What does this fold into?
Amino acid sequence: MNTEIAVHPKLLHYGLTTGNLNAMLDWYRKVLGMTVNHRSALPAEALSRAPFSAMAFISNDETDHRIVLFEVPGVSVDRDKGRHARMQHVAFACRTLDDLLGTFVRLKRLGILPVRAADHGLGTAFYYADPDENIVELSVNNYGDDWTATEHLRTAPPAMALVDPDKMHAARKAGGSPWEVHERAVAGEFAPDEPQDPRAFF
It folds into this structure.
């Protein structure tokens, strides 16, 4: 039994409280392809002593759940969360740039738009707000492998180029390779038409 060295456990799932379980389940189904593997409401006799009234375990892969949602009656969205310590965002990896851009187009058709999009050098990320205003990142590794992205993070200066996903999508459809689209994004070619206040994202 190792008692001295960190064993590097991997992220398995995270839990969220919500006042609107149905809306959250619908959003995560649409955005991440989550399936409800278990949903239950607490029996009436337990409601007076339990901190929540219902729960749902959802996943979009072979793991039994990646997110657990607890419905708490009366809980509300913190409109001042930018002034409070919290989890700032959670990220989900797409396999390719085409997967990321295709997801953007699909969600846009459903009226779900990113609140921010950027090329960070090592990866490209689109950020969405769920119904409770939790930020969910959909991203792709620009290098295609973890080792190179980690070396980039360790050695390159921090960088962020805000992008307009529609412009990136158009460039890819016009035949730009994923790496070319990345390079053009970093060069500022796909900058949003309207300036963005980075403080609004935090």
